[in-house]
Amino acid sequence: MRRRLLVVLVPLAVLLVAALGVPLSVTVAEREMQETYVDRLNDVGRFASLAETALSAGRTEALHQELARYHELYGIPVAVIDTSGTVLLGPAGAYQEAARSEPALSRIVTAALAGARPEPSGEWAPWDDSALVVAEPVGRDSEVVGAVVTISDLSQTRNRILLRWAQLAGLGLLPLIALVAVAWPVSAWVLRPVRELDAASSRISQGDLTIRADAEAGPVELRRLAESFNTMMDAVENAVQRQRAFVSDASHQLRNPLTSLRLAVESLEPHLRPAGNGRQVYGVAVDELKAMQRMLNSLQASARMESIRTASPVDLDAVLATRVDRWRALTATAGQTLAVDVPPGLRLLEPTGGLGSILDELISNALRLSDARAVEVSARVVPGGAGTSAGVSTSAAGGVGASAARGVVTIAVRDDGQGIDASERAQALRRFWRSPRHQNVSGTGLGLAICADLVGAAGGELRLEEGLPRPDGSGHGFAAVVALPVAPRVSSSSDAPAPSPV
């Protein structure tokens, strides 16, 4: 998060420094070039004045020596030319050599011989290698008898400009370095409460409602946010604890009177007449009492499981090794066949209560509710969590997000029985919901709902889909698909499958 903040701040600071530095750099370059031009202009003006006197008096030797000395000292050829362009005084060879590479020379000389002071030639950019040509007429108006021309190499001027630009760039880096040096610890101080809130939210998503944020660090606004977060979590934890306590206490308090009521009802059996309607009513009462006891047991189990929200890695082979034989025996007793198609070596995150208990519930539904002939248990790995529609890849529970990035294991329990309509599948995961076809079949309507909650708490998803094709070709049966994140395989005894509490 700090890096993202610096990614935003540093480019803005660079743009600000550039907005100030670029005009300043242009001004520095223009000033250096202007100083060079003014120096050359002063030189040719002085030489033009001396040349006018020397030519009129016929004494040109002193001026010729001074022009040669100037060229020797500064490396700048200066020549006095006549109206035909012939060099009268100065280093003719150096002048003519320099003149060959200057296309603007003829224009400037022509203007000077016409009595005007032409504009300087060449590009003034430091990266251009053209020379500076400056010409001054000798004489005035119609009495112009020649011109003084200099051809100046601007390499030294450009080097000075580049040096000044480098100095400005170095000065511009100082505020950027200072910004990073200040922003890094300040951003850490500002964002530390945000990271702690993020970590607390991650722990809460795992079911740990006791976690609280640090309300003593960071800016005032974030401290207030942390205090509000803690107050909210206090209220949520109290509400959840009251809800769980109510379910547990109500189930426990109802268990004793319900058991007493069942014993009292069952004690009436010897007093019933064999041929009366009392035995039918007696049977209905006992069945209802048994159903109420199963309901209380399910509510207590749900309350216990919801208080534990820790997912742990488990080998699917180890889970199936303790379950498949019993499933085969149950399906054989019911006149069904069981097929298991699970590749070896799958490792995934096990929900609270044990993966085996969840699969037991799904097999039990296939046996009791579907009226199926064949049941199939299959598993496969979906790379990267593709094919899931719930929060498998975004859950923060126990590193689930990283596990989902490695893939998702889907375990499907399919049958070729009655199945349920697509419109009923979403409702089937609600608590106490039962299909109208199963009202006379024993059950509480809590099994699938509890399984879906446990799988979701482990960062997975329980989906209901179409099952195997029915033998008569009238449609498809029922399928429950459990999608759980892949767990990394490590050679550590601490990752051994945990015993199921259910």
Automatic annotation (TrEMBL):
Keywords on record: Kinase, Membrane, Phosphoprotein, Transferase, Transmembrane, Transmembrane helix, Two-component regulatory system
SUPFAM superfamilies the record matches: ATPase domain of HSP90 chaperone/DNA topoisomerase II/histidine kinase, HAMP domain-like, Homodimeric domain of signal transducing histidine kinase
Any one Pfam family match given in the protein's UniProt record, by short name: HATPase_c
Keyword Kinase tagged: yes
A GO MF label: phosphorelay sensor kinase activity
Organism superkingdom: Bacteria
Primary location group: membrane
SMART domains attached to this UniProt entry: HAMP (SM00304), HATPase_c (SM00387), HisKA (SM00388)
Domain HAMP as annotated: residue spans: 188-241
Catalysed conversion reaction: ATP + protein L-histidine = ADP + protein N-phospho-L-histidine
PANTHER family: SENSOR HISTIDINE KINASE TRCS, SENSOR HISTIDINE KINASE YKOH
Protein name: histidine kinase
UniProt organism field: Nonomuraea cypriaca
